Amino acid sequence: MRTDDDSWDIETSVGATALGVAAMRAAETRRPDALFRDPYAESLVTAVGSPAWTRIGHGDIEGFDEAALRAMGPMISSLIARTCYLDAYCADAVADGIGQIVILASGLDARAYRLDWPSGTTVFELDLPTILEFKASALARVRSDVDRRDVPVDLRQDWPAALRDKGFDPSRPTAWLAEGLLRYLPAVAQDRLFDTVTTLSFSGSRIGTGYVPDIRDRIAKRGKEISERWRRLGLNVNWADLVYDGERNDATEYLAARGWQTTVHTTPELYAANGFEFPDAPSMVAFGDIRYVSAELP
Fold this sequence. Notes:
This protein is an alpha/beta fold. The chain has helices at residues 15-30, 41-48, 51-58, 66-95, 111-114, 129-138, 159-165, 187-200, 219-232, 251-257, 267-273; strands at 100-104, 122-127, 147-152, 174-178, 206-211, 261-266, 291-296. It is globular and about 55 Å long.
């Protein structure tokens, strides 16, 4: 992940992106007709101690900049749609008998706690030690029914060895989850991640992720717009500094070239599937051209 050192400031660094997703999930859970329920997201947001984030997680938006809230609406819809898509990906994987789930850069994701995992499933969560420690502290009183195993490791290090040390079995099919990760990796690291996942994957394994095709030259403008919206809500995040610009391989094409059978859905398709209307100005979604890919290794 993009970072200049091993520190992790959850309110201003790349950790803020995980915090934003958790806040969105907490707010969605409070709605009576919520598309999913994450009863742990609010605890994760509250544990940060940020008044602004806590209010957003509680759904208390009175007094916030109304224009900024309206501008954030399409992004929130995109995150909700993404959550539903990857929840379904996980459910389909275990329904088809896959017993190993690996969540790469798990951040504040609470899927290991909130999804209905069949008996015998093992969920590995990989992320920086500070992130996993924070989550473990915030959810210390929560009991997970699944065999959940933290793998504290930087993805720039030898994470396959750390994963094996926690009991990962490369001779069994695995469902890999890389949610909102690729844009925070440089191009060479994205390719290396897919190469490593392919090497570790037994026949029948799957991977679910999302990416922006041809992301080059888009970060500066869009990142500035997003950061300004967040600033008007009292959130100090320079989003453009967290994401890698520049030319990179198309994720779907790269996986297909390595033997994966891919299925791709666009952001407008996910909007429609969840009852959202895609805005006339796609830029309001931040990255309305995100493609979501699920792939299986024959």
